[in-house]
Amino acid sequence: MFCGEKKLLETERRVKANDREFNEKFQYANNRIHTSKYNVLTFLPINLFEQFQRVANAYFLFLLILQLIPEISSLSWFTTIVPLVLVLTITAVKDATDDFFRHKSDNQVNNRLSEVLINGRLQSEKWMNVKAGDIIKLENNQFVAADLLLLSSSEPHGLCYIETAELDGETNLKVRHALPVTSELGADISRLAKFDGVVACEPPNNKLDKFTGELSWKDNKYPLSNEKIILRGCVLRNTSWCFGMVIFAGPDTKLMQNSGRTKFKRTSIDRLMNTLVLWIFGFLVCMGIILAIGNSIWEHQVGDYFQAFLFRDEVVKNPIFSGFLTFWSYVIILNTVVPISLYVSVEVIRLGHSHFINWDRKMYYSKKETLAEARTTTLNEELGQIEYVFSDKTGTLTQNIMTFNKCSINGRTYGEIYDNLGRKIEINEKTKSVDFSFNPQADSRFRFYDHSLIESIKLGDPKVHEFFRLLALCHTVMPEEKNEGKLIYQVQSPDEGALVTAARNFGFVFKSRTPETITIEEMGKVVTYQLLAFLDFNNIRKRMSVIVQNPEGQIKLYCKGADTILFEKLHPSNEELMTLTSDHLSEFGGEGLRTLAIAYRDLNEEYFTEWFKLLEEASRGLDMRDERIAAAYEEIERDMMLLGATAIEDKLQDGVIETIASLSLANIKIWVLTGDKQETAMNIGYSCNMLTDDMNEVFVISGQTAADVWEEFKKAKEILFERSTGFTNGYAFCEKLQELKLGSTVEETVTGDYALIINGHSLGYALEANLQNEFLEIACICKTVICCRVTPLQKAQVVELVKMHRKAVTLAIGDGANDISMIKSAHIGVGISGQEGMQAVLASDYSFAQFRYLQRLLLVHGRWSYFRMCKFLCYFFYKNFAFTLVHFWFGFFCGFSAQTVYDQWFITLFNIVYTSLPVLAMGIFDQDVSEQNSLDYPNLYGPGQLNLLFNKRKFFICIAHGVYTSFALFFIPYGVFYNVAGEDGKHITDYQSFAVTIATSLVIVVSVQVRQLQRAQDKATPLKSHKRQPRRTSSRRSGYAFAHQEGYGELITSGKNMRVKNLPTSGLGKTMYNSTSWIENLCKKTTDTVNSFSLDRTVKL
Amino acid sequence: MACLFRGVVLGGLVPFAAGPLSPQNSKFLPKPMSHQESQEMKSNNCQGLPSRMPDNTAFQQQQLPAWRPSLTARAVLPGFFTTGVFFLSMGILLILSAKSVKEIEITYTDICSNCSKLRENASNFYKECTCSISFFIPEKMPGNVYMYYKLYNFYQNYRRYIISRNNRQLLGEDITNVENCAPFQRVSNDIPIAPCGAIANSMFNDTILLSYYPNSSTRINVPLLSSDITWWTDKHVKFQNPKSSNLASAFAGTVKPPYWRKPVYQLDQGNPENNGFLNSDFIVWMRVAALPTFKKLYRRIHRIQQFADGLPAGNYSLDISYNFPVTLFKGEKGVVLSTVMWSGGKNFFLGIAYTTTGAVTWLAAFSMTAVHLKLKKKKAFFQC
Known about the structure:
The structure holds two protein chains of two kinds.
Chain A: H1 6-9, E1 13-16, H2 20-24, H3 43-53, H4 55-67, H5 78-110, E2 113-118, E3 121-126, E4 135-139, E5 147-153, E6 159-163, H6 165-168, E7 173-177, H7 180-183, H8 189-194, E8 198-201, E9 213-217, E10 220-224, E11 229-230, E12 235-237, E13 241-248, H9 254-258, H10 268-301, H11 319-334, H12 340-359, E14 373-374, E15 386-391, E16 398-409, E17 412-414, H13 451-459, H14 462-473, E18 478-481, E19 487-490, H15 494-505, E20 508-513, E21 517-522, E22 525-535, E23 543-549, E24 555-561, H16 563-568, H17 575-590, E25 594-603, H18 605-620, H19 625-636, E26 641-652, H20 656-665, E27 669-673, H21 678-687, E28 697-701, H22 706-720, H23 730-742, H24 745-749, E29 754-759, H25 760-766, H26 769-781, E30 784-788, H27 792-806, E31 809-814, H28 820-825, E32 828-832, H29 839-843, E33 846-848, H30 853-891, H31 904-914, H32 916-925, H33 931-936, H34 942-945, H35 952-977, H36 991-1012, H37 1049-1054, H38 1075-1095
Parallel strand pairs in A: 15-27, 15-31, 27-30, 28-29, 29-30, 31-32, 32-33
Antiparallel strand pairs in A: 1-8, 2-3, 2-4, 4-13, 5-11, 5-13, 6-7, 6-12, 8-9, 9-10, 14-33, 16-17, 16-26, 18-19, 20-21, 21-22, 22-23, 23-24, 24-25, 25-26
Helix pairs in contact in A: 3-5, 4-5, 10-11, 12-30, 12-32, 14-15, 18-19, 20-30, 22-26, 30-32, 30-35, 30-36, 35-36
Chain B: H1 2-13, H2 15-18, H3 34-47, H4 73-100, E1 103-107, H5 113-120, E2 130-137, E3 141-142, E4 145-152, H6 159-162, H7 167-170, H8 198-201, E5 207-213, E6 220-221, E7 224-225, H9 232-238, H10 247-250, H11 280-286, E8 294-301, E9 310-311, E10 314-321, E11 332-339, H12 349-377
Antiparallel strand pairs in B: 1-11, 2-10, 3-9, 4-8, 4-11, 5-6, 5-10, 7-8
Transmembrane segments (chain B): 75-96, 348-371
GO biological process, one term (chain B): phospholipid translocation
Family (chain B): Belongs to the CDC50/LEM3 family.
């Protein structure tokens, strides 16, 4: 392979461990990353080249060259060169500073140290020197330096935990495990150094969840999957060390491959301005041609006879050549229709607006001391034109905090508080929360407001006790005791964390677990339960159970799960309680809470032993094993006694609902793109009122193949257009599509609210060329679109799709590294700041701490910026046309000789001094309506979306106005000066007086004109006060918010994830499964459940 | 506040550069106001006291006092009427004033056609040609009377013409400085021309004498003053003779412009003060006209004897020494005698413009009043 073509040709990667020479043959990229653009030598040429790629700069350079030719120089060169050089220098300085910081951050990353196995010894090596094939050692909480194949780890069976928040935004820990053969290597350096396996795998790509490869070692071949790969950007957690072999390094890593290429963002007004500048240039050429022809004629008719006094150079004698030169002279004179100061002023105004965003106290989040920040100063007015908002869910709409909010125990609800008159009290910061000080183990962050629950506990209500005992026992949480008995829970699902923490605060503290026991502290008394069986969660069962034996020997099954499933398994005697609880569940669901039903069953020992045999038999069986196990689970999980239900709030950030409501009133469409699973995403959709039960239809697209997806789209369309007949045949379909392309006619025919929910897999097909139009069509009709399980790249693709086909201005908002690509590809990227990861903020154009500030950013700042910018541009073009065209009229009276009307200094300073302040003040400060009004009447935002205030039509009006003004400005003084004398008889019709008169009137006229700009006086319908109203009628959504597809029950019961020292030597059901087969089991199951999950199309649980 | 404005001033400079930056470029940039912020951050770290919360100033929070006029009919209409009244009265005054100006114009290109012909040929350069024209002033021209020469179709505003002068030379500082004067910088043997340039070279050089005939046999030369016909600033600031004991020596080493008959220091043999660059006719000519048809002040009538009250009605004649060729470029020239009013010479344009504007304003005001009154009856519209 030749090195130059390497990237194109790489179809398979072969990496040999510990063999740099072998790997060097392939010239794989090393681990150094480059984000900087220049170095010392290339800076000047590249930067200048880039700068002159801007049409404006190139244009002014061209003018400058023209002005240096004495024959045509109608203006002195300083009128152009001074501002041009200034602009170039400052831009260059700024670029250089930027690049310097980029160099610095590159260096910082490249110089991070990691331990690399070189020549049989571990050595500290800089990241940039790490090469594919190296074996490196990672320690706990370290960032992973490159994409690694996990070889071995401190945990048993080569397990290791990683946090992938940087990659996909999921905060739960993920498990990776090494191949058994390599995990045996352990930390034995000498054996690791001798490891010479060859990995053959796919070439670098950006798929975060796929990896296919093969390890050949010692004449054996082992398949490799994503489960054995640790990607760059992950953080190692709960694992004291691990060893990995570098497979992809530096730019080849999936992280770098995924970081979408940054594009230079410009606003639509910018683009329009560029077009207009080209048009103006065309106009200028036309005028130049007219004047040049005039000059030729004049020279021929008049000038020729004028030699005696009006001397002309020999070269200019030919009228046609003279006309040619005149053309260029006029190009120079008339260039002030597009002065440099336009660009400068636009930047000044935008900078001013950016400052106002930074200074806004109403966008300052005092809890985290975070200011809103306009990181890009060039996009402000586009904030006033947003049509689509793409939002991440976790951390953006939600706080990523699950709180135990309410519960229903034995037919009574807890969690709501009422005043003396029995009215419900809105819970706010001032509401007194329950004092948990009696409980030394309580988590101080936990808040609960209903005092009756704690009283029930203190009174010793057995049902309430049982309820919390269940919460403390039935879960997969791992406890970690930090210093001085401070408990930290490691949770795979934040829901479970919330439940266990609640139990902990109410006096049922989960203390520790071994594979066979669970120790909890019940109201101060430590009790150890034998864990007899663990009936794990999965997506079909939608429930989990534990069977425990308390010290008294009583055996109990505790179960929690989705209510619909659980209610079928109850003992008939629960009928009454079930109806009551069901009502409560509906109520909780209506408030957007996520619910779980909770039940228990008393088991006698004989029954259990019998059942356990059945289970063991089932698990030993080879065929139909899963089905048989499931059947065994079904067998025991019945006739249960209902305890109650929990309601967990996936806490929305403050003001999210209001913001979304307000933005929807402003006709901004909000799409949620999340990596989270469908249920969670929909739940949030409901809780922030994006999905409601009043909706005509919620389409769920979760097809596994392109055909499925197409089928689902077709169905959705049939429903959408059910009135339009004959739509099913392909021809009509095409017609409709064309209609869509022509305009939004289709959308208008559809009435009613629809929502579209699509998962990542289907989205992959939907984004392909043949389906994307349909996807877009349906999605744009729907009021709400939620995409779940999407990869970072898909997020970006969705944004690109809308950007491309809808010609709409898009905004993407997110907080995590997985949102970066979307943030970068949207017109405007907003990062939520004040959280741990800063990547999203660094890639964003604007950042603030809370989603709700988006409302203010768009409706107040964006709207103002847009209005101001539009007014400014209209005015500026008007002003400069009024200013410049006077030369055109004068041309007819000075023999088309390209004589300027004004003094040269006036021309130089007109835009900078004479007329700069009023227009700048308008552009920076003008408020057409007060901020309160623009918040109260979101439809005032409309003109921006429709681009009404500055478009080609407006532009022509401004131009016409300017032409008219210039006409008046020239001909009124002309009439006045014609044949006039001063009041002392002296001659005052001289050129200077004339010039000054016109210039003065010009300055007065255009300055007065600033005020004349029309004021928007839209009367909008007032926004209904949108308090959060609980919708009692809402459907219930119950279930786990597991970000994974399957519970970690097996992991817990097998003891695999517990440190060896914790592992007791014996116990009752010591291992349910053969320990070596466990890992294979897990792998198999995971792939199964992935499929089952995707097939699972149930929407409403 | 000082700090705040520092931010603004800084802001004024940065935007030059902000334009072509891509967003990712700016990610490492210090935030705007970084200075202030970093200070705050520092103090924050040290004492934990001041927050990063932005200052609550009217400027920063966009709460500056603003004028939000509500343009109701009641507020606007009186304004329109007043403006209308003002413009109308101004217009009428101006028209009346222009009407009372007495002005007589005599174009003599055609009348002196033999001289015009003669001048068309450059070889007749040194031949004298005089021309006499009689005319009659029907009404007395009261007060100050001014005599102008008027040129038609003379493009003093032609670009190459207008730039062909050197103001430093005219200031008398450096008599040999002929920069920008192309093509009349030097004569062939490299001697600089003073005054150089096309404007000076083409100076109007007819001499005009005015005679009054109180009766058919008596002829009185109307006394003409060449003083105080220039702008004060021109005479005293912009034009200076080179410093020397006498003018001739001051201009030594230079040569007269090719179209001139006499060197610059001999322009007015009658009055030695009125020579060199300070010659009034020269200064007047050098103040180039804005439009191709223009008149320039030539002389003032000296108000003595019969002419103390201006020019009486009666017969007059002009004696013109015809030197300036205009027929070459299809131009014309003439003499204008005019009185002036507070509004200047005889020009109706301004008055008409004012009157028209006033009339239009009134028209607008009336129609708006009509609309207003009509809508007022249907109150529904205006009740929001």
